Amino acid sequence: MTNDPTPMLHATGISKFFPGTIALDDVEITLNRGEIHALLGENGAGKSTLIKCLTGVYRRDGGEITLDGKHVNPQSTNHSQILGIGTVYQEVNLLPNLTVAENLHLGRQPMYGPFVARRAMNAAAKKSLLEFGIDIDPAQPLSDYPVAIQQIVAIARAVEMSGKVLILDEPTASLDLDEVKLLFSVIRQLKARGIAVVFITHFLDQVFEICDRATVLRNGQVVGTRELNQVSQTDIISLMLGRQLEARLQEPKPKSSGTLLLQIKELGKSGMLAPFNLNIHKGEVVGLAGLLGSGRTETANLIFGAVKADFGQLKLHNKHIQINNPRDAVAHGFALCPEDRKTEGIVGDLSVRENIILALQARQGWLRPISRRKVDEIAQHYVRTLDIRLANLEMPIRLLSGGNQQKVLLARWLATDPDFLILDEPTRGIDIGAHSEIIALIGQLQKDGMALLVASSEMEELVTYANRVIVLRDHKQVGELTGAEITSNNIIRAIAAETEHEGIA
Amino acid sequence: MIRSTHLPLIATLFTFLLAYALCAWQFPAMLSTRVVANLLTDNAFLGIVAVGMTFVILSGGIDLSVGSVIAFTGVFLAVVLRDTSIPPMMAFALVLFITSAFGAAMGATIHYLEMPPFIVTLAGMFLARGAAYVMSTDSIPITHEFYDVLQSLYWKSAGGGRFRIIGGIMILTFIVAAIIAHRTKFGQNVYALGGGATTARLMGVPVASTTIKIYAISGGLAGLSGIVFSLYTSAGYSLATVGVELDAIAAVVIGGTLLTGGYGFIAGTFFGILIMGLIQTYIVFDGTLSSWWTKIVIGGLLFAFILLQKGLTWASTKRKKAVIGLDTQS
């Protein structure tokens, strides 16, 4: 089957127009049997649109799709599944309230007369999951299992339903290393079965680890398809961006102006974060490093008052201040971009304009509305300076891609003109282009004299912009690196050193 | 093994047994088959309509029209049997068709116009009540020999309890509904909708037909409930069963079904109904309490069950967080 030379899927001339924009322009993509094919591109390059056209979520405005030698015309997700194209999204699109087996078989349950044959269904589910190397009780609700297992259940469902092409849209975004390994072993099995796998991600390391070929999109056009064993990461990145990233990353960091802005003394909450001290100066970027669950987010939330501290005090410009809730924090010129933008940040159905103005209006108080002209001005200003890509300001924010949503969130807080900005994982789940733009923006804000506290799990990123890095482990501050000490290796060492320490003690 | 999803049902069952034990301890007569038979007879119409409501709530919706539909059914039957020569069984079939179609129309409106169920069924509530008023504002007695026959049918058990046909209809409804909800594709689709409509659609659940069927079932069962109510009262009155939709919702929630949809059991609603009936029976037995105490106790129970649901949701997210924490530590 893998030797069959005809491609599994061949799409040519795919075009899609949205009011005011050309989302896809004459796109061609070929997927071979038993191939893992990366689909790469910046936010808004057209990856999602292409997938949606291939799976019938959107009606394409032009082009032909040949699947397994036959012309197809998918009308809906359901239809494309029947044709043989299955999709698994980053957010597991399964039902947490149903059992694993029900999720696997929904819509095609084994029947016994008019009734669902539960026992047969559970047995079949158990068997097909065992093939993927996971041994769980499929009669339990899906929500009882961790995300990685849920993801594999989703893949198993997509493969069983479709079995020709499997599209994985950012499947690893919320997984840890071991879980990624498990997922990759599953993907390799699918490859061995002759399935064509499309892998969309912003982790280039993963692309080079598992994919055979990559198609790169930019501004709705295919800019190249490459055999991955013949190119380097830099080649791919320059293809994606159409410009050099390296130069930007190597700009010298701006120095802080040295005026003390915020003093944090013995701030902490029992059971959540050990008390810590931290002084933050104007024009300084302080990085928070540590493993997942080490207390990065907790630190950010405590300072911002999103979680009330048990003890400790804050001094702003040498004056004591009391922060009991985020409102107080905002009043003192603080701002926080939370990690989980879907649940804690964006208001999906409101327009981009409304999302940008939200924090500023909240600070002004509802009794003093900001004039519509001013609102439009502010919104347009940030859309321009942050290079947010959208059709118009009135479109609901949920329609934007992840990186653009993140930029809108940033714009929301920048609009309040904060003195102190806390960013929690500002580059999580966004692609490499927006990534470097956000990093550049951090540098710019710093130059303008803003103090920033950035929590991030990406060491290289902290190295590029932080003046100081605070290392956290097990809900405790365990080290601080400054100036030239800040390298990925040193950060990793600082995280690991404490473990050895514990080992000796 | 007890699953977290079963806990509300177990809590309901436990509440019922505890309440019954307390009642029986204070008034041993409450153990008699008469009380049991009356419990079933008196709550038959509410039980039937609550079954429909369970489907609706499981799917994440709400149906406020059912109380009015019951009244409409009663008036419709009374008028038809008084003014025409249509045989009662034909009238029953006719009214079941009308009410199911009415429910289906509301379901279609909810789905195709993407309107919140609350608003659509609120409109349905006024429409059905209005239609009942238009037919007649008086209480019309139903005197038809077929009604006499149906009302005289009962099974007299030891101890003098008379198990009437309408209680039987209710129990049959519960059994059939439980099989449909838990053992058929349609049932799983209802749960799937309650778990998340967008996801369900992506997974290939026929959202349109499922939504329409759910509200058609609710409407049809409200019609059946109306038939049962007319047998129970031998009359049709447009002012009857005001607020019954809220009693039905209360029974569903006390029965352990999550108001946000996706979790719950038909059997839970049965015990929800029995608990509500039991409270009324207790107040009758006591004799000194105002019957409005029923509402207060039901209010308290509802509140307790909402707290329980909240607690369970909270506990399950807590547990999941703990699991994730462990994973990252390893």
TrEMBL record, chain A:
Annotated InterPro entries: AAA+_ATPase, ABC_carbohydrate_import_ATPase, ABC_transporter-like_ATP-bd, ABC_transporter-like_CS, P-loop_NTPase
SMART domains per UniProt: AAA
One Gene Ontology molecular-function label: ATP binding
Positions of the ABC transporter domain: 9-244, 247-499
CDD domains hit by this protein: ABC_Carb_Monos_I, ABC_Carb_Monos_II
A single GO cellular-component term on record: plasma membrane
Location in the cell: Cell membrane
Keywords (A to Z) from UniProt: ATP-binding, Cell membrane, Membrane, Nucleotide-binding, Repeat, Sugar transport, Translocase, Transport
Membrane topology recorded in Swiss-Prot or TrEMBL: Peripheral membrane protein
PANTHER family for this protein: CARBOHYDRATE TRANSPORT ATP-BINDING PROTEIN MG119-RELATED, GALACTOFURANOSE TRANSPORTER ATP-BINDING PROTEIN YTFR
Name recorded for this polypeptide: Sugar ABC transporter ATP-binding protein
Natural source organism: Paramylibacter kogurei
Taxon lineage: Bacteria, Pseudomonadati, Pseudomonadota, Alphaproteobacteria, Rhodobacterales
